[in-house]
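Incident review: delayed structure delivery

Summary: a single-chain prediction request sat in the queue longer than the usual turnaround. Root cause was a stuck worker, restarted by the on-call engineer. No data loss occurred. The affected request and its eventual output are reproduced below so the record is complete for anyone auditing the incident later.

Affected input:
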Amino acid sequence: MRLIEVDSGSCIGVHSLRSLSIATQSHPRGRVECERNFSSTAEYAATIVSRFFAEVFPFRPPALAFLCSFAFSHLNIARGDSLKDLFLLGYQLAAGLSEVFTGAFLILAPVFTIQLMGLAASPESAPFLSLIGAFMLAVGLVYLYGALLVRRTRGAGRLEAVWLLTAMIRSSVAIFILDEVLKGNLPGGWLVIAIFDGICVLIQARGLRRGWLTHAAS
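Output delivered after worker restart:
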């Protein structure tokens, strides 16, 4: 079997992890090696997801990669799960943690947080920014709840509801920001948020249309 080297020093087979797990059930040494490879693969996938969202998202909390890696290893992800399952979990965690971190920062230090994003805000707008932060925190918690449903057979319907509702929320925010920027009421820097939300909407819309969540939970 051919192997693919990755920059973390681990190797994964070109076959699915499920096939590897079944093939090594009767060989203790092979099973241990397969488990070790799965752990490295999950950590690597979590790192890739967290790096991607760190490039798109203005904040780069150092705990993001660790939390993603921990979740890949402990949140009901069985050995042999497909890469699509890992992507779904990684997406839920990255989207959820980014919203939670930003929402918490906006609640605790709204003006400072906006300045970190490269935007300007007056101290008088702090209460309104904190209100936005509370909204973002709630959306992030919804995404994290969805992460718990990724591998639950009976959770597919609820996860689809999570994707539908959050896509509606994100699309509304993106349209509002785009409209305000075009009117000149908001600076162009806010378009980063609109683009980020738009990307999430496209991912979720395609996933709902193609039945990703139903296939992952089956």
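Verification: DSSP finds nine helices and two strands in the chain.
Action items: add queue-age alerting; document worker restart procedure.
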